[in-house]
Write a structure and sequence with these properties.
Elements: H1 2-27, E1 32-36, E2 40-42, E3 48-53, E4 60-66, E5 72-79, E6 84-88, E7 103-111, E8 114-123, H2 132-142, H3 148-160, E9 173-179, H4 184-192, H5 198-210, E10 215-220
Helix pairs in contact: 2-3, 2-4
């Protein structure tokens, strides 16, 4: 009887020793890291976030961004199926956007109780990044789905947000585009298909406005 009890105890110990490593793995936090594809970004660049995890737990990934004013907000939440994952932004960093001011940004990565962080810097190099909706509007204008007056909304946005620089405007002026020649569609068409970049397209519009080919009205608010 005593021998049977000893056998039972021995078997129980063997089972416990076999499952202890697995218990430890469940309890232990995974090893994680986060980085960006570049240390320094410019307007028009696409932010690319790269994360690594030691194991897939089934939990969601949480990535927070802390801006230049130290305001923390949730940037991304989603499950992952691979230990190495990239999250490239489909849209460029917008020039003139209050959400993207030059300076240092911090990214915080949380996954299954583990935390990691990294930083990147946004600099104004003179390169321009336009909001995606402007390209959508340009495509509709080029294909005659909207009139030039509707495309002028995009130009108004670029002027009023300071993306297009006009020497005689000031911060108290509200600018509206009034006349856009049809041949300007050629330039918009090249940009819409990627033949020229955001910077080249913006500088072309700026030149057309400065030379009076595209006319604008300045109305005091």
């Amino acid at each position: 009887m005593i021998k049977m009890k000893n056998v039972d105890i021995f078997l129980s110990l063997l089972i416990l020793l076999a499952i202890l490593p697995n218990i430890g793995q469940v309890i232990a936090e995974p090893t994680i890291s986060i980085e960006t594809s570049q240390d320094v970004y410019a307007y028009g660049d696409h932010l690319n976030i790269i994360i690594n995890v030691s194991e897939i737990t089934g939990d969601d990934v949480y990535i927070y961004i802390i801006n230049t004013e130290e305001i923390r907000s949730l940037l991304l939440q989603q499950p992952i199926s691979q230990k190495y994952t990239e999250f490239p932004s489909p849209f460029p960093i917008d020039s003139g956007s209050p959400a993207w001011l030059t300076g240092t940004y911090e990214l915080e990565f949380e996954y299954s109780g583990a935390k990691s962080s990294t930083q990147f810097t946004l600099e104004d190099t003179g390169q321009i990044g336009l909001p995606f909706w402007i390209k959508d509007v340009a495509k509709m204008w080029v294909t005659d789905r909207i009139a030039a007056t509707e495309f002028s909304v995009a130009i108004e946005y670029m002027i009023n947000s300071g993306i297009i620089k006009i020497p005689y405007t000031d911060t108290d002026d509200d600018v509206s585009a009034t006349t856009i020649p049809d041949w300007v569609k050629n330039t918009a068409g090249w940009w819409a298909v990627g033949a020229i970049g955001d910077t080249e397209f913006t500088l072309a519009l700026q030149y057309l406005i400065k030379t009076g080919i595209i006319t604008v009205n300045l109305d005091k608010i």
